[in-house]
Amino acid sequence: MNALLKLVEHGQSYWIDNLTRRMITSGELECRVRREGLRGVTSNPQIFQKAITGTKDYDEQIENLVGGGRPCPDVREIYEALVTTDIRNACDILRPVYDDTSGLDGYVSLEVSPHLAHYTEASIEQARHLFRLVDRPNLFIKIPGTLAGLPAIEELLFEGINVNITLLFSVERYEAVAEAYLRALERRREAGLPLDEVASVASFFLSRIDVLTDELLRHRITPEVTRRPEPDPKTMLGKSAIANAKLAYQSFKRIIESDRWKALEDKGARVQRMLWASTSTKNPAYSDVMYVEPLIGPNTVNTMPEKTIDAFADHGAVRDTIEEGLDEANAVMNGLAKLGIDFGLVTAQLENEGVQKFIEPYDALMASLADKCQKYSNRRSVDLLQKVARELRRDVVTMTTEAGSGHPTSSLSCADIVAALFFHEMRWDPTDPSARDVDTFVLSKGHAAPILWAALHQSGACHESLTSLRKLGSTFEGHPTPTNPWVKVATGSLGQGLAAANGIALANRLDGIPGRVYCLLGDGECSEGSVWEAAQFASLNKLSGLVAIVDVNGLGQTGPTPYGHRTEVFARRFQSFGWSTIEIDGHDIEALLDALYRARKGGPTAIIAKTEKGRGVSFLEGVHGWHGKALDREAMEKALRELGETGVHMTVEPRRLGQIRRSESEPVPPLKPGYRPGEKVATRKGFGIALEKLGESMPDLVVLDGDVSNSTYTEFFARRYPKRFFQSYIAEQNLVGTALGLAVSGKVPVAATFACFLSRAYDFIRMAGHSRPPHLVLCGSHAGVSIGEDGPSQMGLEDLAMFRALAGSTVLYPCDAVSAERLTELAVKTPGIVYLRTTRPSTPVIYSEAEDFPIGGSKVLRSGGNDRFTVVAAGITVHDALAAHDSLKQRGISVRVIDAYSVKPLDVATLEQAARETQGIVVVEDHWRDGGLGDAVAAALNSTVPVHRLAVSKEPRSGTMEQLLERHGISRRAIEEAILAFG
Amino acid sequence: MNALLKLVEHGQSYWIDNLTRRMITSGELECRVRREGLRGVTSNPQIFQKAITGTKDYDEQIENLVGGGRPCPDVREIYEALVTTDIRNACDILRPVYDDTSGLDGYVSLEVSPHLAHYTEASIEQARHLFRLVDRPNLFIKIPGTLAGLPAIEELLFEGINVNITLLFSVERYEAVAEAYLRALERRREAGLPLDEVASVASFFLSRIDVLTDELLRHRITPEVTRRPEPDPKTMLGKSAIANAKLAYQSFKRIIESDRWKALEDKGARVQRMLWASTSTKNPAYSDVMYVEPLIGPNTVNTMPEKTIDAFADHGAVRDTIEEGLDEANAVMNGLAKLGIDFGLVTAQLENEGVQKFIEPYDALMASLADKCQKYSNRRSVDLLQKVARELRRDVVTMTTEAGSGHPTSSLSCADIVAALFFHEMRWDPTDPSARDVDTFVLSKGHAAPILWAALHQSGACHESLTSLRKLGSTFEGHPTPTNPWVKVATGSLGQGLAAANGIALANRLDGIPGRVYCLLGDGECSEGSVWEAAQFASLNKLSGLVAIVDVNGLGQTGPTPYGHRTEVFARRFQSFGWSTIEIDGHDIEALLDALYRARKGGPTAIIAKTEKGRGVSFLEGVHGWHGKALDREAMEKALRELGETGVHMTVEPRRLGQIRRSESEPVPPLKPGYRPGEKVATRKGFGIALEKLGESMPDLVVLDGDVSNSTYTEFFARRYPKRFFQSYIAEQNLVGTALGLAVSGKVPVAATFACFLSRAYDFIRMAGHSRPPHLVLCGSHAGVSIGEDGPSQMGLEDLAMFRALAGSTVLYPCDAVSAERLTELAVKTPGIVYLRTTRPSTPVIYSEAEDFPIGGSKVLRSGGNDRFTVVAAGITVHDALAAHDSLKQRGISVRVIDAYSVKPLDVATLEQAARETQGIVVVEDHWRDGGLGDAVAAALNSTVPVHRLAVSKEPRSGTMEQLLERHGISRRAIEEAILAFG
């Protein structure tokens, strides 16, 4: 007979500290009970976590529990259902033991949630609930012996619910627990309830005590002191747990020997046995049965893991040991005190750690259950979503044939993705396109517009007829534009969606909206560098709610895309840019749902979906030559026959996040520039100072800069409002694209870099124009040759042409710090795209603080009754114009000087007046000759007076500002010559 | 006594088939010779490859051989020196055997290059050379018994050079070899030369024969046939080699028993022994001494590897066996024939494979020696290059302080890289900046210009004073521009260099120039997406000569770069874009040289160099806040003291590749458009057709397209001249950047995409302007709202403004297929940047084939003596203007119609004439209102007549062309109304 079977002769039951479904279904547990003398089972959250997440044994039950419904049932309900099933079955297996021992043994323990360790009432309620749910007399509810646990224990025992008090480390707490038991029994007696129907064990923990005290002892073991401490800490290693337990047992004995107990016992009360827990040896240097052998004696239980059971069966020695070595036990506990080890602190720490040790696996289990729920819940949606995707495909084919053009095949490849998003994963509200507390979708591959229109139409968000596609007046345009209210940013120039998605995600973060942003890209557009600028920004800014989905259909417009279906290429790239990636079959709805679910965490995430262009229609699928071509009617009919009718029409119920935190805008007080006249301050600095001031009263003002904030002077804002400043590094396309995303999400973004580098983002600026943002300010500093020594690559010479060309844009160009501040103030309040041009060198302040600068206005700086000529200048050239005025005045020539700070809209009235009143106009600007202020003035004046344009017309060089203004004919001298030439 | 020592009693010597320096220096070889009866050594290229590349035993000698010189000595010379050293030493160790056996034994064999197996004369020469070089009588030169080898063998033997004939597989060839020996001896006898001073062995190969014949036999062993072949192939496995060798020995015996031989032997001739080679057992199922035991007999040698020697010593059986089993041997050979195995083919194949088996390790050894040479050669350069780098740093500090601005710290971080490139790795010619048969350097991080100027100055390429930096007139500008003749493309807008490098590399490939292109990037600029567009293009186009060097100094303008010194981030990214990568310390010259050497192969390669900004000056190194700031004089003096003076002034000797393959341009005959008047052909198609025609007579014409070649119609060219067409996918920045690189390398590039998408590359276009390429044509198709249904994102509406603004640009805009062809023809011949705007819809041909379209011209399409008004149109609007003319004419209003196909330069004379002769001008264009033709005309006319601009001024929608022209007021009707409004 092995050692285990002998234990019972010495009054000790052994239980097992593990329970899994496999143990039950395989017959292992039954075998242990019947043949190996096992008399009880304990469980805890950690044990269930291992069992449930480590095996597939629970999956079928989980799937059944999830049912067809959505949203998923509460994971705690699922947890309860899973564990009570096991516990109930285990109770039934142990029932014969329970019956044979008249309720002394044969128990199974189930722990309440570790999150309740400090909640008395909740513990009581959950214990009642679990006891009812399992509905077996041989069930122990485990309640930790925390301070909050004590009254719960008493109450539950009073109510006749068996309690295994767990997490006991100290003798004192054990005694309190025993007291609770006594009181509960006494209350039952008073209430006339039977005493023999309630049981309890007090679980006293062992090995963890040694782990911690040994650590403390080792702190005291050092060769670096000559005088050894007393007692020698070395000799005490691995002894505290046993010593403590033996002393606890003495308390137990005192209690059961008390008259108080005897009185209860006489009424049938069962003894509250001591249960030794945490009995596996942690230190491999120690005996593997060290927590079993010395603690054998009457009225005890030892609950062991398999390994310890096996070890003890193999070589455990059995005799009554529990009362041996009590002197040593006392010596050990005294010794700890002598060495300065406060055992009270030890046990308190262990109690805390014990709670934490269960919370962690419990939470992990809940998370894992949530994952599984989602998966099964998804599975039930697959069939329906497949049908939805089929309907979307039918719509795509029909509407493009009707339109006679469009991109059906590019839409078919992503039909499943769009179905999964719009009809399952995305939380959105088809009744409210302006809602912000929702997930957002950005169709970066804009040519797939038909699939978007189909989804909006199917879901009930848009009621327009799909056959209006591409027809004048329809919001279903060839590529998405905000004419359709569901479109946040116009797309169709590829590679731009992700940058906008960055901006939307940033705005969500600023406003506390937990929405996700889904951006659907094509594989072909991943050749655009802007995608990688955006990818870098997203990971640097930890935009975890951003999900890029790449529709890798492998075919571009003119042939295969560079990497065909090699999804791993895209995965490696996104990874190298700091993203999580998931590669899937983009037509497998279940895989899609799973990927989307996984993408909820740990983002930014790129889902790389392998798809077929033209998917769903045999003669289109993966066939080159169909890009951007609609089917004729005959082919359409064939396609529709293949796709079949599903009869499904799935609308989307509104799902909103309900969370949004926005600061109310206060009225913005007018800025007070506060410069001295003549003070030399660069306009770029004036801009920076104004931004910082505006930041205070405009909570929606956000600023982006491309690693030149100490040149553009956005650094003032950045330092003051770091959360509203976004360092965009040297990546101007993403700078503008992200600003646009912010702009369409209610922010007022100001994006700044050198004027010349805004040309890097011209396509983004162009598309921003088509996106019609409420506010978007772009500031270009270092305009013109006046920057001097850095040379032509750093000179903004095309910027006025670029921004003037944009329909509806505003172009402002201050010449001094006052106008710079004023125009910055105006810029952030002016609707649409506003371009603000600033200058590198310092220029003298010429305006008073009170000066007003309306959009579309100008300033006549010098004027007299007999002005013969007019000089129109802006920015840096205003100062040369004034100098020329003075100089010409000395020569008797009177010249009107106009500061055309509003380059667009231009102050036509003032210019026309000058045209009428003077004999010639010289326009002088630090910009290429064509497309700038000169063109603007010439076109506006429309013929009444000669207009002479002074501007940069030959390749600039490095040199001083003065040299360059002179060299390029835009200096004071050049203006004078031009005026004299009229003469 | 072990079996080996007994062999000699049976007339067989055993040799070892291995030789390493370690065997010699350790005494192992001597021990084998003195104690274990070893009587000879053979070697071959494979053996030396293992010895030389697998150990460090040769490295010291290699380093000495490399010496201080550059370029490295020929690796074959080094090889010879290494092996003849070993061979000579081995000969000396075996000399006692040679002497003791009177020259019968004690030989060491050295093989000629395996590349000479089929070259008689070269084999003879090399054998003579090696025999002289080793200068030992007991040397065998190994010559393969190929057909080309036979006469060489005879000649060498005649000359008294001992020959070991190797690679013998067939009896027939063995007999031919024996005949060569006989003839050589007979010729010596005739020439009166002694016969006892020349020796030979015939090496007959064994195991390889079994490997191959067994394979062929196994093809014939199958359970799937019922009737077994006869003989049973199974029974013949592993028998052919021995059978063949035994039969060869019978030939040997016949020869030495012949009278002819006896006559020679009488004169002292030594017998040409049979040598058994390839005697290690390959098939583990066979005995490990199977190629030794059965072939023991007089006048034989068995040359074995160590393993076989050990096996034979251990368990070999020795007796006279060579003449046993001759019947079986014949049966085996007959059996092979019966089974259809042609043994002649077997031996021929083995001979070929035998040669290959030596070529491979020989070549690998040469490559490995080249690597080692380079490494040692580099090491000798390190000290000097460090000093050069120090001098460059001194120059950088001095010149920026002198200039009072610039980027010293960004230059200091890459001083070592630049020193390694310009003064060591790059093959270039400081006397000729226009040379193309050289390596090219592109400074993508243009703000580090000072380090480039310093290198050009130090190397003697530029004689301008460095203190002219950033001064007006100096070619040492703030950022590199082609004002300095060494600068290919202007840089300073970051992230553009690599695309240009792509173009230069493509041009090199087209012209057969084996030059490499080095592009130096900063880590900060790797945030630019354009870098990754270029990286993708380089790997897709396998630009193996392209080397990107990233100067990861970890500091940007405003603070740390996004990834600091994490070079692995860049390495992973470049890898994910298909590049080889090498991460190094960018200040370790030796590591740099090694990386540059490795980058010569397997590119494109990115060298990711970890550096410190401000390196070399303690108070600048890695210190933030120094970006773009010059030191003051005091700080400069301190920096110079730290850097110290080296006294080194290293000029660079010209190194040119001397290879260039260019097709001569023929005179381009004028195109013959050949359309019918009124035929409807889109101008984009006319452009495509013209390109294809021009391709024939313009070998330098190259075309690039961004995956829209079937829309732009560059597909015609692509199909006809695929090698001159570069698919650039959806990456317009790289499209333009690569075109620029081609343009500055003598090509005439035409890059095409939708007009709107050229806005994506505006910064590249801007910088191309500053780069002043001889020719660069950009074609934008799908201009304006006339594209119709695709909607605003696809409409080029800013392109005229963009291109007009560029100083020196030409902007052309055809309205029909004839003018499209003519203007395409002109575009490729017009210097500088030419923009050609084409239209999507088909338009009627209005011009005759003979029509001429000068740049700066226009066409007056309708004109009469009494024109009241003028309509100026271009492109699509020309047709509406003509229609308006007709309609107004019916109403009695005479209107002049001008086709302003040359938007820039504009035909001012014709316009001024119209202004003088008519009362109002309407300009009508399919473009945004500002910056286009209207502005151009208004600015040009300068006041003489009212100019009314019709252009697109509100946001377009999807719709038909006709609807949109109407909606945006640029239709026939709108023109009429505008004319009528003049009243």
From TrEMBL, chains A, B:
<keyword id="KW-0460">Magnesium</keyword>
<dbReference type="Pfam" id="PF02779">
    <property type="entry name" value="Transket_pyr"/>
</dbReference>
<dbReference type="InterPro" id="IPR029061">
    <property type="entry name" value="THDP-binding"/>
</dbReference>
<keyword id="KW-0479">Metal-binding</keyword>
<dbReference type="InterPro" id="IPR033248">
    <property type="entry name" value="Transketolase_C"/>
</dbReference>
<keyword id="KW-0106">Calcium</keyword>
<dbReference type="InterPro" id="IPR018225">
    <property type="entry name" value="Transaldolase_AS"/>
</dbReference>
<dbReference type="InterPro" id="IPR004732">
    <property type="entry name" value="Transaldolase_2"/>
</dbReference>
<comment type="pathway">
    <text>Carbohydrate degradation; pentose phosphate pathway; D-glyceraldehyde 3-phosphate and beta-D-fructose 6-phosphate from D-ribose 5-phosphate and D-xylulose 5-phosphate (non-oxidative stage): step 2/3.</text>
</comment>
<dbReference type="InterPro" id="IPR020826">
    <property type="entry name" value="Transketolase_BS"/>
</dbReference>
<dbReference type="Pfam" id="PF00456">
    <property type="entry name" value="Transketolase_N"/>
</dbReference>
<keyword id="KW-0786">Thiamine pyrophosphate</keyword>
<comment type="similarity">
    <text>Belongs to the transketolase family.</text>
</comment>
<comment type="similarity">
    <text>Belongs to the transaldolase family. Type 2 subfamily.</text>
</comment>
<dbReference type="InterPro" id="IPR005475">
    <property type="entry name" value="Transketolase-like_Pyr-bd"/>
</dbReference>
<dbReference type="InterPro" id="IPR013785">
    <property type="entry name" value="Aldolase_TIM"/>
</dbReference>
<keyword id="KW-0808">Transferase</keyword>
<dbReference type="InterPro" id="IPR009014">
    <property type="entry name" value="Transketo_C/PFOR_II"/>
</dbReference>
<keyword id="KW-0963">Cytoplasm</keyword>
<keyword id="KW-0704">Schiff base</keyword>
<dbReference type="InterPro" id="IPR005474">
    <property type="entry name" value="Transketolase_N"/>
</dbReference>
<keyword id="KW-0570">Pentose shunt</keyword>
<dbReference type="InterPro" id="IPR049557">
    <property type="entry name" value="Transketolase_CS"/>
</dbReference>
<comment type="subunit">
    <text>Homodimer.</text>
</comment>
<dbReference type="InterPro" id="IPR001585">
    <property type="entry name" value="TAL/FSA"/>
</dbReference>
<comment type="function">
    <text>Transaldolase is important for the balance of metabolites in the pentose-phosphate pathway.</text>
</comment>
<feature type="domain" description="Transketolase-like pyrimidine-binding">
    <location>
        <begin position="681"/>
        <end position="845"/>
    </location>
</feature>
<dbReference type="GO" id="GO:0004802">
    <property type="term" value="F:transketolase activity"/>
</dbReference>
<dbReference type="InterPro" id="IPR051424">
    <property type="entry name" value="Transketolase-like"/>
</dbReference>
<protein>
    <recommendedName>
        <fullName>Transaldolase</fullName>
        <ecNumber>2.2.1.2</ecNumber>
    </recommendedName>
</protein>
<dbReference type="Pfam" id="PF00923">
    <property type="entry name" value="TAL_FSA"/>
</dbReference>
<feature type="active site" description="Schiff-base intermediate with substrate">
    <location>
        <position position="142"/>
    </location>
</feature>
<dbReference type="Pfam" id="PF02780">
    <property type="entry name" value="Transketolase_C"/>
</dbReference>
